[in-house]
Structures are given as C-alpha cells and as structure tokens.
Design a protein that fits this description.
The protein has 89 residues and is mainly β. It has one helix at 65-68, and strands at residues 4-7, 21-25, 31-35, 45-50, 53-60, 79-87. The chain contains one helix and six strands, in the order βββββαβ.
Length: 89
C-alpha cells in the first residue's frame, strides 16, 4: 500500500494554507479523497487531475468578520489554499 502525504511543493504564494487531507482506498476498492474544508461553498474550490496529481485549490472567505470582531483565539485559516496529495510509492 502506498503512503500518501500532502504538501505544497511549489506554492503559488507562501501565504497559502494546506487543508488536512486523507487519501485512502475504500472497502469497495474506490479511491477516496477527504479534505477538511469547513465553511467552504462548493463554488469556492476546484478539484483538478493533472497527470498523476490531484489538486484541490480554492479560497475560504471570512465574510469580513476579521474587521468586525475582536478575536481571542485564531486557529482557522482564511484565504487561498491548495492541497496536492502525493504518493510516496
């Protein structure tokens, strides 16, 4: 079984973030890609297959909240993101 890692090999911009991603073969033998993208609409991201790479790219918008709120803890990432799962095999 191949080990899959997620990275930004050549990020378009160093400020882009990488969502948590799992890639596995299901019990039915299907390739499953799970990307943790809370609060993102389907029109705000795209999935591209390029040769042997799967690229998940998009942007999580904050709706202007950052200017209207006083944050006490900030762990969520906003802005552009990209996930490129790579097989180690």
């Amino acid at each position: 079984m191949a080990i899959i890692t997620t990275s930004l090999a050549n990020p378009p911009n160093p400020e882009w973030w990488v969502p948590n991603t799992d890639v596995y073969i299901s019990e039915d033998g299907l390739l499953v890609i799970e990307v943790e993208l809370a609060a993102i609409k389907k029109e705000d991201f795209e999935v591209t297959v390029d040769a042997n790479r799967i690229i998940v790219r998009g942007e999580r918008l904050d709706g202007g909240r950052r200017q209207r709120c006083q944050y006490l803890v900030t762990e969520l990432r906003y802005g552009p993101f990209e996930s490129v799962p790579r097989s180690a095999a």
